[in-house]
Design a protein that fits this description.
Helix content is 33%, strand content 19%. The chain is an alpha/beta fold. It has a seven-stranded mixed sheet with strand order 7-6-15-16-17-14-18. Strands 9-2-1-13-19 form a five-stranded parallel sheet, with helices on one face. The radius of gyration is 22 Å and the shape is globular. The relative contact order is 0.18.
Length: 496
Amino acid sequence: MAEKKTAAVIGAGLAGLTSALILARNGYTVTLVEKSRRVGLTVRGFSREGVYFDTGLHYTGGLGENGIVSRYLRYLGFGSPELVPFADDCFDEIRFADTGKTVRLPIGYERMTGALQAAFPEDAEAVAAYMRAARDGFAKSSLLRFFLGAQNGPDAIQDPGDAVSLSAYLETLTADPYLRAALSMHALLYGVSPEEIPFTQHAYVTASYFDSVHNFAGGGGALIRAFERRLAEENVTVITGNGVRRILCDGKRRVTGLALETGETIQADACICTTHPHALAAMAEDLFRPVYLKRLRSLEDTASAYMFFGISETGPECLRGKNLFLCRGPELGNAFGGRMAPEDGPFYVASSPQPAGSAKSGIVVVAPGGFDQVARWAASSRGRRPPGYAAFKEGVVARVREALVRQCPELEAVRFVDAATPLTMRDYLDAPRGGLYGCKHTVSQFNPLPLTRSPNLWLAGQSVIAPGLMGAMISGFLACGFLLGHSTLHEEMAWT
């Protein structure tokens, strides 16, 4: 019998987990290497006082019966995971404190169009035009077209609409700053300002909610545990708590394996790297030319943030089946440059799924933040912060709680039990300045492609195709397609 081919996957986030399973399903002996002690660290969440908190996954589109993410999961062998649906009549509620205006977004293309037109009757045509463009942009996007098999290889990577920013597009539709803010609000979920994000990237997020909005029962932790079960079933070797020191290659710049931080060596016929591009540059100094390494190191990150975790004994009604976006006014731009104090908002507020029978709720609040605000403690590490940092965190929590309750009195009873700063994000995400979603996708920044100059090294992750669960997973499918053949994956997907 011919010896099975070997593959190494660097990084066990959603892109790495997806890539490892695809390769294992297609006959490869796979080793998955993760620097942290657990796989899916940023998505799996954590518990305090018996209450679960989602961290990297709060809700997603594409989980309807025939949704894109559902098809991906079935292909990966997950069956039909138990889901928590969001409220059909309002899955997101946007509140503007300066005017008292509230915008409620229901699930469904027609219903969302009608709700936005009712909130902005003088801009009904602008709303209709935006909704059509978002739906069409998503339908024509690389995410969906790759899934349907309409594109192969490099043709699936770039969309022509990437040259037009969200802000520039909205300026052609309306002068109302509140409508522009409402249509831009989901930029907070991928960390790039409306002035920078391509409209097509924004459509990936917004249009995915037209048909369905769900979380997993058990939150992101349930999804990661399902991945762990499937990795074990497919005999994937998982190495955690051990980072990659160097990607090894031969004289022709062909990857031959990995050298780990502990001194171990892994041999591999192929490699998929899903880490932050800055980390890739550190691992691949022998593999890439200096000009490419410089480009990897110069890529700008998405915005960082503060996260606050609170417990509600009964679960506030304002978060039942929906999320909140709380804004002082319509200006969102400062939220992406780290220039605003976290208590200035805007705030994204979500409730995490709890075990059946639990009356308590885990409330997660995300507020803007920049790494410069915590740079004085940059030399410290997790679990070894100086007293000044702890005092700083306590002050931020107190100020944010006061601002939050002022804008949303229904959250008065929430008791905060933990918090994360941009410094926390740096250490957990292995991102130099705490960027939440890898490197920015902008109209001017050219992000890494899945293909590299090494004939057996491919890249995946949020920095490659798009942010979020969907972007990370499709990047894994795309990278594996270059190795296995995109037509092969398309044919296999057609049977799921």
